[in-house]
Amino acid sequence: MSNDPLVIFTPSGKRGRFPAGTPVLTAARKLGVDLDSVCGGRGICSKCQVTPSYGDFPKHGVTVSEGALSEWNAVEARYDRVRGLKTGRRLGCQATVQGDIVIDVPAESQVHRQVVRKAASARPIIMDPATRLYFVEVAEPDMHEPSGDLERLKAALAQQWDLTGLVADLSVVTRLQPVLRKGKWQVTVAVHHAANSNTGQILEIWPGLHESGIFGLAIDLGSTTIAGHLCDLVTGEVLASSGIMNPQIRFGEDLMSRVSYAMMNPGGDREMTTAVREALNTLAGEIAAEAEIDPALILETVFVCNPVMHHLLLGIDPVELGQAPFALATSSSLTLPARDLDLAALNSGAQVYILPCIAGHVGADAAAVALSEEPNLSDDLVLVVDVGTNAEILLGNRNKVLACSSPTGPAFEGAQISSGQRAAPGAIERVQIDPDTKEPRFRIIGCDLWSDDPGFAEATAATGVTGICGSGIIEAVAEMRMAGLLDAAGLIGSAEQTGSARCELEGRVHAYLIHDGSAEGGPRITVTQGDIRAIQLAKAALYAGAKLLMDEMGVTSVDRVTLAGAFGAHISPKHAMVLGMIPDAPLDKVTSAGNAAGHGARIALCSREARTRIETVVGQIHKVETAVEPKFQEHFVAASAIPNAVDAFPILNSVVPLPSPSFNTGDGADGGRRRRRRG
Ligand code: FES
Question: 36 C-alpha vs ligand 1 centroid, how far in Å?
Fold first, then answer.
């Protein structure tokens, strides 16, 4: 056996013997230990930091003596003086092995570090970004051996980083010469490798060592709202999140009305494409400003969206998606330059990745939910519901996964609700109604106090109580049902019928007053009969979609339910079930996953491996088409009742017995509950 020093890396446990004098970074590379380096061992990037451990390590069978690593050298001393090295840290490219040694690689020095996800159920993201930075020293031009600057840059990348087959954008080539000379032939380049591709593309070049970071945007492009997360492409950290309304709303509130707009108006699709691209540029600028970064440092963007949004983003007329057989122009994932989508706010070389679509009505957003929640890896049967203007619904386990999309409309996002608004400070997000007094109390976004707590008025003076958001309206309707203010058919009772003066006559139907701010010049916030109908339509579509998948799977119940969506994290499982949004299940088996589609976008942004994985998984998901399935209508009608006209909810009833008043006046004054829409 060799007498060379034994080097053991933690946490990987990888070990090997190396001749004395071997740099730690070299040993790590040879063992395949995940130790980062941007400068290639020149001692200037500090990405290679490690923590040596000294003493007895019976577990590893070694004793590490003081001199097991070389003394600090001038490079480390200088780095410590200028930037500061944490106590006990060494630069892996400078410290050399002198004796048996145990070396810890801290998380921030790992390329494939884990990014912790906040939700409890969460699987971590393993960083494996498509775009990475490389510092190189480029040979200077030589009259006697003529070659182009680009060719020498490529040669340097091949020699120093083993990167071959690279191509460079014209925008990089045009800036190459001044940047190389400014950096004194030392430059940092950003190289992008698309998933499933061996060729790479030079996206950007900076003089010297680039230390301002590179960033990516994960965008959930919804029919009503567009949500974006700005992520650090090295750490995966979310630096800022922001959302704006999708300006296409002016062409139609839901998907089918936008498809109709494109059908009825020549050039209508182009108008909608332009509108959404402009909004995306605005959003990118806003998020970059919030994070205080230069938007030109955004090198990648990942989109998840439903098929109609997908086509309109790409500039494809969505007309085929409006009629059977709902053919997509392409269902594959796409990697393309951001400039093809007119995303001028980003870096000129920025790349876009769009997740694959599952089918004509089941888009890249459903694929993103699958990537985030991984029903295909579940041992028990899980129903994943991503609530938005369209609900993406997945049902499955290790054996089989089914997916559909259901047209819920924008009610769950606060649109089409009389006092509805986006989830923003001032919006009512929680509601409780006392079943005896029928008096409500509520909480608004931005304040932890309930409305009947002392100090509520002062604490909310700045924002006021402005409206009611998606989670607020769901709780309000469910609480009204539990308090006996609303019957199973969805009719609000009169003041006489309910014993509450808050049930006010409004035309021929009633509305329930939650908050009257009119004395202070604020709004009167009521839940109207029309609001109840909008919520009934939305939740019936959701439930009918879930039931359709259960039929297809041949089951009458599910083991657990995951609620996702922009406000998925805020929906109370109890209220969702009282409403009959989701099938009967033990309440502790109903969990919230937050914005699963957005999270899936973030995973794809941070990991090439995840892109490859979801492309495979999508091919295995079986889609169910709600639009042509007659059973959908049947389930929909039954699900319009609260919670349901035919399905019993035994588990729910054992926890929350619902009163059974009937307020039906028989005069047809039901606010048009037979109305039904697709979107
Ligand atoms: S690899 Fe850059 S400082 Fe060590």
Answer: 8
